[in-house]
Amino acid sequence: MRVVKKIKEMKKIADQLRKEGKIIGFVPTMGYLHEGHLSLVKIAKRKSDVCVVSIFVNPLQFGPKEDYHTYPRNFKRDKKLLTALGVDIIFYPSEKEIYPEPCLTSVQVKKLSEGLCGRVRPGHFEGVATIVTKLFNIVKPHIAVFGQKDYQQAIIIKKMVKDLNFDIKIIIAPTIREKNGLACSSRNIYLNEKERKEATVLYQSLRLAKKMIKEGERNSERIIKEMKKLITTKSSGKIDYIEIVDAKTLAPVKKISGKVCIALAVFFGKARLIDNILVQSG
Ligand code: PAF
């Protein structure tokens, strides 16, 4: 396992691997790895000859009042986990290496970035699309794996890859959950014991929504109302949003048809947790 910190070196390795006909699988991360990340790595490994994982906390995707400076970091632990999984390369650049001067170019995926988390985190997805583009140009992968937990992000990256003609296959991998249903997230570290217990209501509310749809309910408003009732009666979570959107376009749907994504963001203390579920309405 190799740790590469310089862009020039990473590009040179990627060029050589491509020359040798090797398939490069890539998982971009911000580190502080959990089971969710590890499941993405396992998929990337299965589908490639050489697996690269990047660890970079990207300042561009954090708002001025968000947790960039306190975002959890532990490279030593991450390295150990990735070594155990047989990852070939960790790309671990410094902020200076990635942004040696102010970045005047950005990638914006319109429309898809505007709703859901984009509404409350202006600039976030532009920051994500920009860093992912840079990482794709540096790591030169054939395949990249993203988690369904960040569904809006994954759909945005898929569209960006299509619009900008990247020769990269994007795989969206299922959300990994703790036994109690809580979706794995680096930000779960912010939860105290009580909040961690209460936050299990999020997946319960998503399952309730799925059950309502499977039983024939097609009115989004009625489903969202029941989800809100469950979350507010069973927890102290402060709802940021709950929305039902078309799974492809991410446009809100009033009357459910086809495949939808039920997505939510809820604050527990200082942790803003997101989760979602995909439902085929028949
Ligand atoms: O999902 C993440 O961890 C980040 O948004 C990503 C894709 C690594 C870009 O910084």
Strand content: 15-25%
CATH topology of the largest domain: Rossmann fold
Largest sheet: 6 strands, parallel
Mean pLDDT: 97
Category by helix and strand content: alpha/beta
**Largest sheet strand order:** 1-4-3-2-5-6
Secondary structure: helix percent: 25-40%
| Record field, number of beta strands | 9
CATH top-level class of the largest domain: Alpha Beta
Number of domain modules: 2
CATH homolog superfamily of the largest domain = HUPs
SS element count, helices: 10
The N- to C-terminal Cα distance equals 46 Å
Rg (C-alpha, Å): 19 Å
Query: Helix and strand succession?
Result: EHEHEHEHHHEHEHHHEEE
Second CATH tier, the architecture of the largest domain: 3-Layer(aba) Sandwich
Bound molecules: pantoate
Outline type: globular
> Which regions have little confidence, pLDDT < 50, spanning 5+ residues?
none
Throw out a few tags for this protein.
282 residues; alpha/beta; Rossmann fold; Pantoate--beta-alanine Ligase, Chain: A,domain 2; 2 domains; 9 strands; globular; binds pantoate
Describe this structure in words.
- By secondary structure, the protein is α/β, with parallel strands linked by helices.
- The protein folds into two domains: 172 residues, Rossmann fold (3-Layer(aba) Sandwich); 95 residues, Pantoate-beta-alanine ligase, C-terminal domain (Pantoate--beta-alanine Ligase, Chain: A,domain 2, 2-Layer Sandwich).
- Helices cover 39% and strands 20% of the residues.
- It is built from ten helices and nine strands.
- Strands 1-4-3-2-5-6 form a six-stranded parallel β-sheet, with helices on both faces. It has a three-stranded antiparallel β-sheet with strand order 7-8-9.
- It is globular and about 55 Å long.
- It starts with a strand and ends with a strand.
- Pantoate binds next to β2 and α6.
- The site of pantoate has 10 residues, from β2 and α6.
